[in-house]
Design brief:
Helices cover 47% and strands 19% of the residues. It is an alpha+beta fold. It has two domains: 1-55; 57-138, Beta-lactamase Inhibitory Protein, Chain:B, domain 1 (2-Layer Sandwich).
């Protein structure tokens, strides 16, 4: 989170300063055009992901087991929404940390994901009908 908060603006400022030093104001213009293009690409990707998610029920995924297999530590909520093509069902109080989202498939198996500051920290797969334990899969192990 710190990298996104401070790194991107710092890199942008350094790019503009370097462009001005090596090419003058025309270099600043080219650097600004590149930064605006990057911003537009990021915005377009985000809008496309949300457009696909708007056409699906909230909290639905085709296969919870496949989602469990694809999840990795540190991916963003936007990345998970892109994988599932659906917004997750919010399971925690609004605007609180950590955020819990759940995606359920047609067999009522579900994956509950915990996000801290927008990054995936852990997840659990629950499949109904498991014999002894309902939790059959989970995210990263917390071995010490």
């Amino acid at each position: 989170m710190q990298l996104q908060r401070f790194g991107v603006p710092l890199f942008s400022a350094l790019l503009l300063l370097a462009a001005h030093r090596y090419a003058g104001w025309s270099g600043v213009g080219v650097a600004m055009a590149a930064l605006v293009m990057w911003l537009l690409l990021h915005f377009t990707r985000m809008m496309q992901i949300l457009k696909r998610a708007a056409n699906r029920p909230i909290g639905f995924v085709d296969s919870a087991v496949m989602l469990n297999a694809k999840l990795r530590l540190g991916v963003t909520l936007m990345h998970v929404v892109a994988m599932t093509r659906a917004l997750g069902e919010l399971r925690s109080p609004k605007d609180s940390q950590p955020e819990l989202f759940r995606w359920t498939d047609g067999t009522q198996s579900h994956v509950t994901c915990e996000f801290h500051n927008g990054k995936l920290k852990k997840w659990d797969l629950v499949r109904p009908g498991a014999t002894d334990e309902a939790h059959v899969g989970s995210g990263p192990r917390q071995d010490s």
